[in-house]
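REQUEST ID: PR-0412
SUBMITTED BY: lab tech R.K.
PRIORITY: routine
TASK: structure prediction, single protein chain
INPUT:
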Amino acid sequence: LEVAWVRRRQPADQVQSYCGDWPLHPGYWPSQERLLLQLDFAAAGGPLQAAWAVGQQVATLIQTLSLALAQELNAEALANLDYPYTPPLGPMWDPITRTARRAKRWP
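STATUS: complete
OUTPUT:
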């Protein structure tokens, strides 16, 4: 089990948190491991403020989110990022994309 997080040095006064509990692999994969991901955005569609991930293989997710934090991406930009998709190795929708889409639905 891995736990990783990244945050802005001086986060916004108000943040909105969005969580997701996602499969780490496609449904036909023998292992049914899960990944917990939380993304915090500045209120009113603002940029990413912090991210937490718990599960297996979370280092690459946090690296991506660290870059998103540095570039001040918001939920819209994160939801539209394009990730490589390899059917035997990962789910069709990346956990970051799925959580960001959840954030876009609830402003």
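NOTES: Residues 59-70 form the longest helix (12 residues).
REVIEWED BY: pending
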